[in-house]
């Protein structure tokens, strides 16, 4: 009796009007029901389901048998002879579902599932009709902060900030696609003691500060260097600079104005990078949280967490050999005071469930300490993976070809804008070399150069596991062969041109045509398409964009194989195969979108 109820719930789950989304989760759901029937006395056995390696015994595999067998045996149960018998029982108890074509048990009880071709075709066709957004992952949270990019005012915006910008934007995009409300936060360093010397130097150079325009200050990094020089060389200046910090923080108008002016110049420089990369960010810099710091520290102090140590006020944390300094010995606040307060603000004022910080791995300890303090204070649950939750997304260094920290040319500073412009001009040169300017408009050349150039920089960064260092190399990233954005963008354009060449109205085909997956290579491609949702979810929840890159690259490889073995235009299967082309192009475009890459439609 219970069984038929389950069968019903499964068939409604995968019925016509329901969107497919995460296939792995649907399969896991089926196994969950089977496990309940197989071992009704075992509460909440989590189904362990994984996609199988292509060409193996099935499409998905359930790996519960072995673990379950030892668990039962441990309890003295003799219900099963061995893991394979558990596997057999799990298979036998699988409810009826149109998703599954056949099952088998292999080795020590692995239950292999072959998806039904009919169900696969139908699901892809539904996506073609209803749009790719129906394949968006469903996450359990409503709102998240992604704290990324976050350069420092008047200091160099370096390749580390570029990595943060690229990785953070992709994470934000994946979350947004999954219907999470994302607060894209630029936590700019706009409130350090460096402002004392900058402001004093500004007053010295321009006694009539009201009349100074931004261009007069010129290169802010040179300006920073010069004021640092003054600070180090002249003790009288140093004293004035220290007083300036106090006057600025006290809110004195002349000082606030000078500060605002310096910030505005930096912001212009940052925006020229964001504009090129089409990255949106909302600036809520360190200064924003400043007014909240005293009460947050007071709260922690009242909880008995803050102690006096060598004149400073600190929080001692188990497992760390240094304490977290929350008030410096001179009474000033620091990076940690601001981050604790920003965390408090995000949790309490912005009611965010997941806060994600994207910085180089060098800052890992800082974040671990801040998170730990928040847990002790009871702001965050102590259990991992429970919400509200914080995550530090660390990344490695960008290296030059010499294997050292990346620098452009001989100057010590990397101007990010120059770097991006070079990527664009190099890809433009390639287009011109191929004489694209003969039949493309100037605008088309420019847009394609931009899409390819900036896309190459982004993809070269994102395709690596972010924790590893990566070597910045224009020739490599702009290569049209191999795992590069150029290759992928061209692959997409080629699919679009196949569809165009067919002369068919693909929008019309979506409504009337039938897609089927008869040929082996059609099926492999179709299965890969159907895995899109589970992959995005995996990349997003594990904060690993490289998983999505790998998926995209394999998609393109699967398409190539299909295209070389299955004739599309003029074949008996033309309609079905054009639909498969279109579905591939749609999924590719969504991948590009999530990676912040602009697709191109012709090459
Ligand atoms: N401004 C810092 C830096 O350039 C990054 C800030 C990261 N965000 C944060 N909430 N601490 O290294």
Automatic annotation (TrEMBL):
Span of domain Arginyl tRNA synthetase N-terminal = 25-115
Q: Where is the DALR anticodon binding domain?
A: 488-603
Q: Name one Pfam family in it.
A: Arg_tRNA_synt_N
GO cellular component entries: cytoplasm
Under which EC number(s) is this enzyme classified? 6.1.1.19
Catalytic class of the enzyme: ligase
Q: Which GO terms describe its molecular function?
A: arginine-tRNA ligase activity; ATP binding
Family in the record: Belongs to the class-I aminoacyl-tRNA synthetase family.
Q: What is this protein called?
A: arginine--tRNA ligase
């Amino acid at each position: 009796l219970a069984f038929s109820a389950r069968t019903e719930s499964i068939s409604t789950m995968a019925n016509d009007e329901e969107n497919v989304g995460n296939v792995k989760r649907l399969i896991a759901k089926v196994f969950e029901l089977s496990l309940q029937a197989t071992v009704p006395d075992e509460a909440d056995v989590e189904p362990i389901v994984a996609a199988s390696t292509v060409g193996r015994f099935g499409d998905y595999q359930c790996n519960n048998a072995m673990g379950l067998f030892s668990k039962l045996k441990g309890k003295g149960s003799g219900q099963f002879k061995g893991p394979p018998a558990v596997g057999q029982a799990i298979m036998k108890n699988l409810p009826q579902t149109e998703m599954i074509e056949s099952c088998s048990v292999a080795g020590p009880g692995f239950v292999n599932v072959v998806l039904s071709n009919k169900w696969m075709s139908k699901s892809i066709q539904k996506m073609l009709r209803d749009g790719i957004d129906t394949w968006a992952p469903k996450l359990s949270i409503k709102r998240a902060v992604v704290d990324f990019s976050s350069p420092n005012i008047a200091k160099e915006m370096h390749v580390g900030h570029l990595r943060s910008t690229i990785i953070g934007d992709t994470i934000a995009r994946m979350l947004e696609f999954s219907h999470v409300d994302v607060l894209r936060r630029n936590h700019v360093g706009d409130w350090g003691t460096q402002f004392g010397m900058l402001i004093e130097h500004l007053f010295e150079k321009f006694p009539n500060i009201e009349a100074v325009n931004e261009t007069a200050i010129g290169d802010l990094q040179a300006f920073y260097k010069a004021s640092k020089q003054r600070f180090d060389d002249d003790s009288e200046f140093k004293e004035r600079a220290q007083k300036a910090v106090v006057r600025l923080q006290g809110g004195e108008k002349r000082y606030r104005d000078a500060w605002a002016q310096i910030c505005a110049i930096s912001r212009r420089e940052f925006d020229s990078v964001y504009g090129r990369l089409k990255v949106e960010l909302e600036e809520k810099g360190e200064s924003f949280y400043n007014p909240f710091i005293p009460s947050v520290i007071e709260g922690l102090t009242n909880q008995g967490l803050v102690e006096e140590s060598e004149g400073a006020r600190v929080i001692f944390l188990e497992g760390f050999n240094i304490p977290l300094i929350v008030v410096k010995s001179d009474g000033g606040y620091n990076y940690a005071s601001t981050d604790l307060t920003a965390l408090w603000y995000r949790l309490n004022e912005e009611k965010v469930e997941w806060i994600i910080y994207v910085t180089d791995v060098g800052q890992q300890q800082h974040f671990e300490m801040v998170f730990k303090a928040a847990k002790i204070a009871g702001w965050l649950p102590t259990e991992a993976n429970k919400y509200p939750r914080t995550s530090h997304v660390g990344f490695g260094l960008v290296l030059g070809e010499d294997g050292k920290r990346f620098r452009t040319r001989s100057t010590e500073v990397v101007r990010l804008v120059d770097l991006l412009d070079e990527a664009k001009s190099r890809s433009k040169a390639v287009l011109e070399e191929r004489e694209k300017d003969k039949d493309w408009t100037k605008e088309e050349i420019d847009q394609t150069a931009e899409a390819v150039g900036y896309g190459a920089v982004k993809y070269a960064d994102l395709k690596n596991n972010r924790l590893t260092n990566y070597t910045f190399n224009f020739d490599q990233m702009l290569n049209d062969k191999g795992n590069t954005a150029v290759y992928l963008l061209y692959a997409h354009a080629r699919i679009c041109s196949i569809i165009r060449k067919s002369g068919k109205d693909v929008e019309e085909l979506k409504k009337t045509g039938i897609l089927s997956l008869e040929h082996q290579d059609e099926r492999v491609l179709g299965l890969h398409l159907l895995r899109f949702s589970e992959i995005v979810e995996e990349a997003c929840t594990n904060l690993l964009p490289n998983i999505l890159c790998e998926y995209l690259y394999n998609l393109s490889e699967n398409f190539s194989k299909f295209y070389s073995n299955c004739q599309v235009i003029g074949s008996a299967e033309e309609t079905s195969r054009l639909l498969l082309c279109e579905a591939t192009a749609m999924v590719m475009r969504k991948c590009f979108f999530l990676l912040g890459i602009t697709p191109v439609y012709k090459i």
